[in-house]
Every structure is written in structure tokens, then in C-alpha cells.
């Protein structure tokens, strides 16, 4: 705790209650970790005005100068990995191993975009006349804003802030109210590395008021949001007035398809990784498991055994693999989906109830005999429940997997290479994992289609979201 308090030296954070602050609690113990100052809408508009001035100075640096600062930030995050990971586990609940993994993942975006910062190249086009020269240049959008969720308190911030800063933009970040401390810790390390405070400011408080200020203020030219589809729609609507550029990383309903010819041990491991990571609380978590009839029972047994052996507990304790759910609302949704499934014919092979640890701990659950009438077939559970649906043919499973408004991540396991291509191309999703349950990294374009969102983060495409293209036509006659 001493190292955490030493790192969190920021005027917005205190370790005793103060007026106008929000409380950050540890979901594993219920203890308060810290108190964070909230801002009014007026305070957000002031921060936007400061960001506008800071952005001009930041954009006037060369790409190399910005890259050097991002490299410093990357090294600072790596150097504080253990403290940042402990802080994340304390405010979010995920196991320390998962938090360490997320800090690596978060840092990887800073390193990647430090490299990309020098590659925002434009084009020289073939002119239509002898007297004409035609060029395309890429310029920073200006002031941008991010709104991020609690399930990845660090990575969802660096995946937005690193490309924004690399491109020469300023960014205001509104982190989830349950996990703001990781955001502040990243910002403090960024300031130490040379990022101007007003070019990367954290604002906490009433989500609707802050989001409205981002949408209403014409200085903010882009909003990048990661969270639920419901809130994403609202941000889309509110941004229409000023026609803001948007990135929306929204909900999912990921199918996980296991064909008869799959390596079943590998598929079971892939499912455990993609379903139970962060206690099932990631947007790319498997929601529906489709298993071909010939291997259904065998596969179900393998998964139930593995799920049943996952160790639940306070994420700070050694060996713990699964932490608590974020809050009681999340717990209720898990219970509702299980009750609905059992009422409609599902059979519980493993888990199915709250853990004896109390609080919001829930046992990793495997259900068989799931069918398409169940709520779990349509809605994202966002919890540790794997419902196994039976299927017969390839065409049938493709149709059922695509029968959703969402289109973020999908997974399939088969040894048949022709089928890998065929099904991979037929699935209407932004990302498809083939014989793997883990697909995210900084070099890959992360994002969805349909109600799962707009735009891509990470990869060489990620920086484009923070750049405007400008065409210059020169008459040299
Ligand atoms: P959420 O309720 O949409 O919250 C996300 C962020 O939006 C938080 O900062 C929240 O602030 C803020 N917010 C809440 N109400 C708002 C409003 N009316 N206007 C503007 N902002 C508002 O989502 P969540 O429950 O935290 O996260 C779970 C969802 O995020 C899941 O659907 C998951 O699939 C999705 N997700 C998607 C991705 C992706 O990359 N596609 C990644 C992670 C999560 P407060 O915390 O202050 O309420």
C-alpha cells in the first residue's frame, strides 16, 4: 500500500474522505482504497479549454520528440509494473497475475504507438495536369476525449491515449468510477515522462454530465468510447450535433464453435481462457459455446473439470485465478441468466451458485443442453457462465453464430484448414480466433461490426483514428 500511496501523488486523490469525492472500493473485501475528486460539467469545459492550448504546443513537437516522450512513459509503466498491478487488483478484483498481464498489455500500446508516431506518412498523388501537384498530409485531429470501462482499467486507456498523443492530439480521459486510480497512476507516470498535464487530463464524476460536456463542446473533435452498446448509442446520438469523429468499442456476444475434428484438449483450454478471463468480464469473452453433436459429451466433461478446478479468491492471494464480480448488479445478471437457462432445460455440470467466499464471488459455471430460447443466447452475460449448445452442421452453426446484433469476437476450433478459411470468412465479426481463445495484442486491429462498434484500436490502423487526412492541390504554373 505504501508504494501505491507514493505513486498516487495527485491533487485529485486522497486516502481519507473529502467532500465532493467518489469512493473507490476493493470488490474482494469491501474496503475503501481511496477517494477521488469529482468535477462538474463546468470543470470539464475548463479542462477542455486548457487541453486546446496544450494540444497546439504538443502537436508542434516533431513526431520524434513525441515518440521519445512516449518511450519514457513506456519504461516508467514497465518500471512500476508490480505497483500498478496491485493497485488494479485492489480496485478491480482480477487476480494479480491477470493484472500483471494487463499492465504488460497496456504498456505494449505505448511502445507500439511510440514506434507508429514516426510513420504518419501522407502521399504524393499522380497529378491530372502538368501544372498541378497533389499531396495528402495527415494532421492531428486536435482535442479528443475517452470514456473507458472498469474491466480493463489500464489497457483501455493506453489503447486510446497512446495513439492520440503519438498523433499530436490532446486527450481528456473519463475512467469508470469504479476504477479511476489506475487511470491516475498512468497519467502521473506520463507527466513524469514529459507529457504535458493539460494534454492528458483525467476527469472523474457524473458520467452523463461529463459525456454531455464532451459532446456539446465543439473543441472536442473526437470521442473514443469503450463500454456498453446502450451508452455507446447515446454517445453516437449526442455527438451528431457537431458531427464528431467516433470510435465505439461496445458489447459482444461471442460464439465459440468446436467442430468434431478439433483438438478437444486445446479447444477446452481455449474456452477456459476466453470464457473465464477476468471472471468472464471482458467484451471478447465467449458467451455462447457451440459444440458439434459427435463430441458434445466428451467436450462438456473436459470443460467442466477445468472450470471446477479454477481457484477463486482475493486476487492478491497467491494462486488465485478468479476474483469476484465487479458488483451486485453483475452478480444478479449472472444468476438471472442461469435461472432462465435452467428453467428452459439447461443442466448444470459445474458451479451454478454463489461461492462460499461470500461477497460477489461466483463459482465458474458450465451449463449443458443450452438452447436458442434462453436469454443467455441473446444477451452478454459478462460473468463466469459457459452455456454449451449442440449443433449438427457447419451451415447451421454459422447461421446461429451470426444470429445476433453483435459482431465483436468469435472463435472456432477445427483441424480442417479449408473449414478454417470458410467459417472464418463467413462469421460476421470484427475478430475471429481460429484454434485459439486469446486474440488481443497491440499489433492486431481490435474492434467490432454491427452493434459492437465503429473503428479499430491498436495495429497500424489505430493511429488513423486520431488523424485527419488533408488534400493539398498546388498549381505551379
Ligand atoms: P458502461 O456502463 O457503458 O460504462 C462504461 C463507461 O461509460 C464508464 O466510464 C461509465 O462511467 C460511462 N458511462 C456510464 N453511463 C454513461 C452515460 N450515460 N453517458 C456516458 N458515459 C457513461 O459499461 P461497463 O458496464 O462499465 O462495461 C461493460 C461493457 O463494456 C460490456 O458491454 C462490454 O462488452 C463493453 N466493453 C467493450 C470493450 C470493447 O473493446 N469492445 C472492451 C471492454 C468492455 P461510470 O463508471 O461513472 O458509470
Can you offer a commentary on this structure?
This protein is of the alpha/beta class and 477 residues long. The protein has helices spanning 2-7, 41-60, 63-79, 81-92, 96-116, 155-167, 180-193, 207-216, 229-238, 264-276, 296-308, 328-343, 375-378, 394-402, 417-426, and strands at residues 13-14, 21-25, 32-37, 123-125, 132-140, 143-147, 170-174, 200-202, 220-226, 245-249, 254-258, 286-292, 347-350, 365-370, 385-391, 409-413, 431-434, 453-454, 467-475. The chain has a 7-stranded mixed β-sheet with strand order 13-14-15-12-11-16-17, sandwiched between helices. Helix 2 packs across helix 8 (207-216), helix 3 (63-79) runs antiparallel to helix 5 and helix 4 (81-92) runs antiparallel to helix 7 (180-193). The protein is globular, with a radius of gyration of 23 Å. The protein starts with a helix and ends with a strand. The site of NADP nicotinamide-adenine-dinucleotide phosphate has 29 residues, from helix 8 and helix 9.
